[in-house]
Design a protein that fits this description.
There is one protein chain. By secondary structure, this protein is of the alpha/beta class. It folds into 2 domains: 5-93 and 210-264, Rossmann fold, CATH 3.40.50.1860; 96-208, Rossmann fold (3-Layer(aba) Sandwich). 44% of the residues lie in helices and 18% in strands. It has helices at residues 16-25, 47-61, 74-80, 95-105, 117-122, 124-132, 144-151, 160-175, 192-199, 208-222, 243-254; strands at 5-10, 31-35, 66-71, 91-92, 110-115, 137-142, 180-183, 204-207, 235-239, 261-264. The strands form 2 sheets. Strands 4-3-1-2-9-10 form a 6-stranded parallel sheet, sandwiched between helices.
Length: 267
């Protein structure tokens, strides 16, 4: 058993979807989250810059007592692919867990992937999917405006602007007849209802953050690293910019007040 925290990082608030899921399936675990809000978005950066930022985020988390790291950022995960960025503790991005879930779910062998421009440009999701399930048709499309719409609270199911943007981004997926769609950015589950309404009930949506949280549970069980704490764990959030803005965005993002303390900290 190990009572250290699970470390989670993202470029902003998107990784909170993974934290929310961790709180549900591992309620006794402590979570330390770092959101690099001063440098968001990562999705428009070069591969070299994304790797630099990711390693700095990890170095920050390692200043605390942690037992596992989750890169809850689709862009970071796609840039590193199936590689790991640490060798002294368990590590996962969101890519491989989401790819495995999509391959298990698809019936017609046609999987869609939406994410930031950097995520789609990397081709990492397609590579992982075809390694797991050769012959699968993978259709990818970047959705850069989704992050900004979510960050600014345009998340209501009936929001005309977000629905219009979604229709344009998702049209290629629908035209290709995918039956499974990976939400390759952890922001996207916040507008999953809008995405689902457009894609139709026959298309299964795969939340990359949720799948990463499920993978983390399996990993900690296998390595005997679960806490023996019987009371609920607590969340601690660190951001590289305004705590007030993070809290406001988090409320828009999750529809509820953030559960835990928030601190501003430089890398």
């Amino acid at each position: 058993m190990n009572n250290d925290a699970i470390g989670v990082f993202d470029s902003g608030v998107g990784g909170l979807t993974a934290v929310s899921e961790l709180n549900k399936i591992l309620p006794n675990e402590n979570i330390i989250y770092f959101g690099d809000t001063a440098r968001i978005p990562y999705g428009s950066r070069s591969r070299e810059t994304v790797l630099k930022y990711a390693n700095e985020d990890i170095a920050f988390l390692k200043k605390h007592k942690i037992k596992m790291i989750i890169a809850a950022c689709g862009t970071v995960s796609s840039v590193i692919g199936t590689n790991v960025l640490v060798d002294d503790m368990p590590f996962t991005g969101v890519l491989l867990p989401a790819a495995q879930a999509a391959c298990s779910n698809t019936k017609n062998g046609r999987i869609g992937v939406i994410g930031t421009p950097a995520t789609i440009r990397s081709g990492s999701f397609a590579k992982a999917i075809k390694t797991i399930r050769p012959g699968t048709v993978v259709v990818g499309n970047p959705c850069p405006l989704f992050v900004h719409l979510v960050e600014n609270g345009y998340t209501d199911r009936d929001n005309k602007i977000t629905k219009m943007v979604a229709a344009e981004y998702l049209a290629p997926m629908k035209a290709e007849g995918v039956d499974t769609l990976i939400l390759g950015c952890t922001h996207y589950p916040i507008i999953k209802d809008i995405i689902a309404d457009y894609m139709g009930e026959d298309v299964t949506l795969i939340s990359s953050g949720k799948e990463a949280a499920k993978y983390a549970e399996i990993c900690l069980v296998e390595k005997n690293l679960l806490t023996d704490r019987t009371e609920n764990g607590h969340n601690t959030f660190y951001v590289s910019d305004s705590t007030e803005l993070f809290e406001e965005n988090a409320k828009n993002f999750l529809g509820t007040k953030i559960n835990g303390e928030i601190f501003s900290s430089n890398l």
